[in-house]
Amino acid sequence: MGPLYIVLPSPNGSTCTVIAKESNVITIAGCIRNGFAVSSFIQERYPDSVISVIACGEQWSNGVLRPAIEDLIGAGAILSQFDQSLLSPEAKIAVSAFRHAEHDIQKILIECSSGRELAEKGFPEDVSIASELNVSHVVPVFHNGAYIQTFD
After folding, report:
1. Where do the structural domains in the chain lie, given as residue ranges?
2. Which of 32, 65, 114, 137 is the least buried, fewest Cβ under 10 Å from its Cβ?
């Protein structure tokens, strides 16, 4: 089987991907579902590198950035696996958000703005799927214009 290509419907995630491509940096798609796989992948392949974990967020209907708690929790899931003494204050806040939510992620995501929005649009099961912690070992790495499936 050849590489799997993933389409990201997130406008902010897509924008961040384009910016990263223009900056010629390695770009990995991480979330709550693959957070530990992403952190393991980074630690194994790039142990001495400086990394940036970006909680991309959403957009309000008028195009203004809307922070998304699910992205902050996902960033925290990834960052929670690194040496905490080396993290920036922003990264430590993301880890704190993850630790706070870790044992009740599904409830938190159902009640947050994005979760309510998805449920109102008829996609409550998407919220449940998004809240599954570390169920995926896939690490999507951006390569030649698309995210390619790798495994931790």
Report:
1. 5-151
2. 65
Contact in structure between 2 and 48 (CB atoms under 8 Å): no
Q: Rounded mean pLDDT of the chain?
A: 89
For 35-63, give one letter per residue: b (16+ CB within 10 A) or e: bbbbbbbbeeeeeeeeeebebbbbeeeee
CATH class for the domain made up of 5-151: alpha beta
Q: What does the DSSP 8-state code read for residue 84?
A: G
Helix or strand holding residue 59 (H, E)? strand 58-59
Euclidean distance between CA atoms 106 and 98, whole angstroms: 12
Q: Whole-angstrom Cα distance, residue 97 to residue 55?
A: 12
pLDDT digits (tens, 9 = 90+) for 48-80: 999 999 888 887 778 788 889 999 999 999 999
DSSP secondary structure letters along 91-145: HHHHHHHHHHHTTSHHHHHHHSHHHHHHHHTT-HHHHHHHT-TT---EEEEEETT
Contact 76, 53 (CB under 8 A): no
Residues of the chain with pLDDT under 70: 1-9, 152
Contacts of residue 1, Cβ cutoff 8 Å, sequence gap at least 6: none
Residue 4: the pLDDT is: 43
